[in-house]
Design a protein that fits this description.
The chain is mostly beta strands and 145 residues long. Helices cover 8% and strands 52% of the residues. The structure holds copper (II) ion.
């Protein structure tokens, strides 16, 4: 009986269900732009660390995970293989920092629309979010949501 209860607890709470996304957003792109960005706050309510190991969106040929580093006066973007969300913690994607890069955009992103995006977690499972598109060059999502 006890073993069964433990099994139920796990079945009802897969690891990926512990991860949530707050304020997913993007920025409008000028005509002809081939890249866009995705920002959000990733939260992990669970007791074990989680990793985002991939992302995809129907509006882009591929979605890369980028970090921004400063080299002298130059800001450079570098692709990474995963975003780590600590147990009980959060991980922020924001302009000038860590972000998702939508590469080979199939069409421009327009202010006010919602762009679907899927995050893939290392421990299995996917998180589907809608990026709210803010104006070109926005530094933060509009408030209130
Ligand atoms: Cu980038």
């Amino acid at each position: 009986m006890r073993r069964w209860l433990i099994f139920l607890a796990f079945a009802a709470c897969p690891a990926w269900a512990q991860v949530s996304v707050e304020q997913p957003w993007s920025r409008a792109t000028p005509p002809g732009a081939t890249i866009g960005a995705g920002f959000m706050q990733l939260k992990n309510a669970g007791g074990t660390a989680q990793r985002v190991v991939g992302a995809s969106s129907p509006v882009a040929g591929r979605v890369e995970m980028h970090v921004t580093t400063r080299e002298g006066d130059v800001m450079k973007m570098r692709q990474v293989q995963a975003f780590d969300i600590p147990a009980g913690g959060s991980f922020e994607l924001k302009p000038g920092g860590v972000h998702l890069m939508l590469v080979d955009l199939r069409r421009p992103l327009n202010k006010g629309e919602k762009v679907p995006l899927t995050l893939k977690l290392e421990k299995g499972g996917e998180l589907k979010v809608d990026l709210t598109v803010e104006e070109i060059g926005a530094r933060r999502p509009a408030q209130p949501r």
